[in-house]
Design brief:
The chain has 12 helices and 12 strands. It is of the alpha/beta class and 377 residues long. The structure holds pyridoxal-5'-phosphate. Pyridoxal-5'-phosphate binds next to α4.
Length: 377
């Protein structure tokens, strides 16, 4: 036991937090970072200039607390999302992680349960433990799919107070059909369950994939969360948001810290949203690389999951940890999500993607375990 663990055990830490590990995706100095699904394209120059100008202006008023209601941001988010949403239906936080935490603070907590469908976003159990919410899980079907019937059964049988549906799912990448979300919502009626659809990767979905935003009307227990960390290339700015019935945002107002969105954050988000079109132009380029990874991995004899996100989950590896280490030696950091035989890689720029595919092909053929690798250009 390290000395820091010894001293931690002497502190009066909450019993339910003892022995837990914090969120820990490695932050390493590696040339090619494809491990936490960031947008590797960076912020376009004109958007950068607009953000700097907006932040500069906001800096002049930093002696005052910011607009607690982030009024302009809620208006901008409502117009960005469309679907007839009004500003009263929008809520934002310092990353969608904070928004999800506020949801659990308001609707979870001691004596309440949250349901997740692993493999899914690793933050759900951590947000649950931080808020004293019991986290329970239900199985997925073959190939990590979710059907309306099995999902409804899990929601009903668990009588959970909060249900996390991640679509497109992290780490497997696939979006849920609206029928699954509708079934979960209907099944949650008996327990008056909050159904939260985490659409962090919504902008990367294949054309024709419907968003759960289209289901919000008339469903007061349905919440759809989004983020500016992925498609908008603003992970460092920490801006996430959700859309729901106005009474949901009233509930979140009870648990948020006053002035939780700094004036600088609001200025950044507003500037970015007025340039949404430019920011999103890289999304199409990333989708091309994402689809390319799926195709090339199949040619390498691996099994990638269908991806509606900016990353690809793939199985069929004899020794994923060895491959992960070999890629790291080649200067490419990807993610070992702890699922046997599998790894996850973020779609980067064309050059980054090429570097990943080339290094992977070399490692697999050196292994001799996999079918001979076709040369990747
Ligand atoms: C990246 C990610 C988020 C976004 O988190 P932020 O706090 O907005 O950066 C949310 N949900 C999932 C599933 C993610 O992968």
């Amino acid at each position: 036991m390290s000395s820091s663990a010894e001293s931690l055990s002497q502190l009066p830490l909450r019993e339910d937090l003892r022995g837990l590990s914090p969120y820990g995706a490695p932050q390493l100095e590696v040339p090619i970072l494809l491990n936490v699904n960031e947008n590797t394209h960076g912020v376009p120059a004109d958007v950068h200039a607009a953000i700097v100008e907006a932040v500069e202006k906001a800096t002049q008023g930093l002696n005052r607390y910011p607009d607690r209601e982030f009024t302009e941001l809620r208006q901008n988010l409502a117009s960005y999302l469309g679907h007839g949403l009004t500003p009263e239906q929008l809520w934002a936080g310092n990353g969608s992680n904070e928004v999800l935490q506020q949801v659990l603070q308001a609707f979870g907590g001691p004596g309440r349960t949250a349901l997740g469908f692993p493999p899914t976003y690793s933050m759900y159990p951590l947000l649950a433990s931080g808020t004293g919410t019991r986290y329970i899980t239900a199985e997925r079907e073959h190939g990590y799919a979710m059907t309306p019937e099995a999902t409804a059964r899990a929601v009903r049988d668990s009588a959970a107070n909060v249900v996390f549906l991640c679509s497109p799912n992290n780490p497997t990448g696939t979006a849920l059909g609206l029928d699954v979300i509708e079934a979960a919502y209907a099944a949650g009626e008996a327990a008056n369950a909050i159904i939260i659809v985490d659409e962090a990767y919504g902008e990367f979905a294949h054309q024709g994939t419907a968003s759960a935003l289209s289901l919000l009307s008339g469903r007061a227990r349905l919440l759809v969360s989004r983020t500016m960390s992925k498609a908008f290339a603003l992970a460092g700015a920490r801006i996430g948001y959700l859309a729901a019935a106005p009474e949901v945002t009233d509930a979140l107002r009870l648990v948020r810290l006053p002035y939780h969105l700094s004036a600088l954050t609001q200025a950044t988000a507003n500037a970015a949203l007025t340039h949404a079109h430019t920011l999103l132009s890289n999304v199409e380029a990333i989708k091309v690389q994402r689809d390319r990874i799926v195709t090339e991995l199949e040619l390498l004899g691996l099994t990638p999951s269908p991806s509606d996100s900016n990353f690809v989950f793939f199985s069929g590896l004899e020794d994923p940890h060895r491959i992960w280490e070999g890629l790291l030696e080649a200067g490419v950091l990807i993610r070992d999500v702890g699922i046997p035989g599998s790894l996850r890689v973020t779609a980067g720029t064309e050059q980054e993607t090429t570097a990943f595919l080339t290094a992977l092909a070399r490692l697999l053929s050196a292994d001799g375990e996999q079918p001979p690798a076709r040369a990747v250009d």
